[in-house]
Amino acid sequence: MKAFGTLEVTDISNPNSIVPIEIPDQQPTGHDLLVKVKAVSVNPVDTKVRNSRNGLTNGARIVGYDASGIVVATGEKVTLFKPGDEVYYAGDITRKGTNAELHLIDERIVAIKPKSLDFLTAAGLPLTSITAYEALFDRLPFSAEHLESNAGKRLLIINGAGGVGSIAIQLAKWAGLHVTATASRPETVQWVKELGADEVINHRNSFKDEFEKLPFDTVDAILCLNNTKGHWQNMHDVIKPQGHICSIVEIGETVNLDLIKPKSITFSWEFMFTRPMFETEDIIEQHNLLTKVAELLDSGVIKDTVTKKLTPLNAENLREAHELIESGRMIGKVVVGEN
């Protein structure tokens, strides 16, 4: 079957950066589904893995950590799906990616796609939705079951206009939180306001100075979606004592962890691949939360965040999508495939 992979680490402008390749046909066993891929999305993790030299000695690297498609076969332990089901999911970073005609994936991290969305639009949601949902309701001290308990709580989202930020703002507002988002360009400021942010501050300025323009000077929690090290002091300055910080961005260097000790701040990481990587006891929670997100979309409580569609699913369009992500100026999500 056909897939799209990387044979060498090279600049995305090089046609060899992503090429069509042939891989053996596969059959599902155990909890696996075999999905006919209709559309995928490209995320920063795709570009990071594509640019890594690890594993290239073992052949082509196939990335892709978002997909929507149709189940064509199931393993003997599958109970949640049947052939013909239309699904969406974010995949498992330890397995081959979704940039292929057919893809094997554990049913426990898959859900029925939103009925109100076509395949292209649905493909832009899983990774960002899982990341935002887990960050808000598993890592930070907010509840998705008892929304009343969130009343009066303030959340700061750094990089509100990106893929994760765009869905995180909406989920946070659904949960009853007061949301301040960061953005620096007129178009990104407008975007996060349309998504429901109560205030917008400029992340290129001192957060302490920006908060002087607001009727409050601290927040209960911060979701950091950009430059953890660069915003370390900023986050300390505006987090409430005994508050919580969650980041999805690697630090890569030493930071002064002692800085947040006097305020007794809780710091946590969110990595949406943890559950499938380690097959945790609660791996089914990714199925559950994607099901909940689909319900919220179909009921109109939240909306999709796709801003760029490229068709069909081929190497050229995947390269263009990677280039958009690497530009650092992408608003919302880019998807590749067919409706």
TrEMBL record:
<keyword id="KW-0560">Oxidoreductase</keyword>
<dbReference type="InterPro" id="IPR011032">
    <property type="entry name" value="GroES-like_sf"/>
</dbReference>
<comment type="similarity">
    <text>Belongs to the zinc-containing alcohol dehydrogenase family. Quinone oxidoreductase subfamily.</text>
</comment>
<dbReference type="InterPro" id="IPR002364">
    <property type="entry name" value="Quin_OxRdtase/zeta-crystal_CS"/>
</dbReference>
<feature type="domain" description="Enoyl reductase (ER)">
    <location>
        <begin position="5"/>
        <end position="336"/>
    </location>
</feature>
<dbReference type="Pfam" id="PF08240">
    <property type="entry name" value="ADH_N"/>
</dbReference>
<dbReference type="InterPro" id="IPR020843">
    <property type="entry name" value="ER"/>
</dbReference>
<dbReference type="InterPro" id="IPR050700">
    <property type="entry name" value="YIM1/Zinc_Alcohol_DH_Fams"/>
</dbReference>
<dbReference type="GO" id="GO:0016491">
    <property type="term" value="F:oxidoreductase activity"/>
</dbReference>
<dbReference type="InterPro" id="IPR014182">
    <property type="entry name" value="ADH_Zn_typ-1"/>
</dbReference>
<dbReference type="GO" id="GO:0008270">
    <property type="term" value="F:zinc ion binding"/>
</dbReference>
<dbReference type="InterPro" id="IPR013154">
    <property type="entry name" value="ADH-like_N"/>
</dbReference>
<dbReference type="InterPro" id="IPR036291">
    <property type="entry name" value="NAD(P)-bd_dom_sf"/>
</dbReference>
<keyword id="KW-0479">Metal-binding</keyword>
<keyword id="KW-0862">Zinc</keyword>
<dbReference type="Pfam" id="PF13602">
    <property type="entry name" value="ADH_zinc_N_2"/>
</dbReference>
<protein>
    <recommendedName>
        <fullName>Zinc-type alcohol dehydrogenase-like protein</fullName>
    </recommendedName>
</protein>
